[in-house]
Amino acid sequence: MFGYVRPNRDELKVRELREYEAVYCGLCHTLGKRHGFLARMFLSYDIVFLAMLLDGNKPELTHHRCPARLWCRKKNCTCTTGLDIAADIGTILNYWKLRDTIADGRWWEQLAARALSWLLLPGYRKAARNRPEFVEMVQSCLEELRRLEQENIPSLDQPADTFARMLSAAPPASGDPTRDRALKQALYHIGRWIYLVDAWDDLLDDRQRGNYNPIIARFPEFREEDQRYLRTTLCHSLNLARTACALLELGHWQGCVENILYLGLPMVEELVFTGRWKAAKNSYRRKNK
Q: What InterPro entries does the database record attribute to this sequence (predicted)?
């Protein structure tokens, strides 16, 4: 996935940070248990956020040896329904992201993606059996995105809507229509935000390589007021995601989720738009070790 949906760690309470790291490690453990060791390599903060949205119960903590640092036993959440669903969703999305790289990447990226997708295939097949409706939606949305890219559609909304619909289909029905609708709306608008932030992050690279980018297609001669327009529509999506999450019973993860929505995502957006995102990601990775 993309890794944009993360908290502002400096503003989390000590307990919240400890439990956020525990659910991160718990999801890593669940990925390995359900889909094999390679699936752990694709762990992302975006899927951790999904796991918290799906399960508001206070986590039970245990210790497992960290595969990245075998001398270290890290505290993590035991398997819950939220972690299981998030592990399946993450594996499915990462497999299709690799397939997309095979279709559109540079030749050395294609070779690496082909090898990784082959190794991830057994885990993907298991996840696909668990979530067949989601797989169908992912395939449909990716085909639609590919068609829009081939047509070089001069729109921000159409491709962003397609990507957002894919993410909104991630949570299975819970039996509570009000909760299901609010959760889908929250994920829809976060998906829209992710797509447009990623488009800005890839802007220079896509311009150099001649790849489709909705911002380039919509604003061929990019001006300062166009950036203001883009920031405004991103703010609108964030506000709608926050409104939808306010209708959810987030339980134990209320503080972490609100930190991400109100502090983490605006922080990431500012880092991306000011060109400091790659350096910040490296710093964040060192802190999380």
A: DUF5685 (IPR043740)
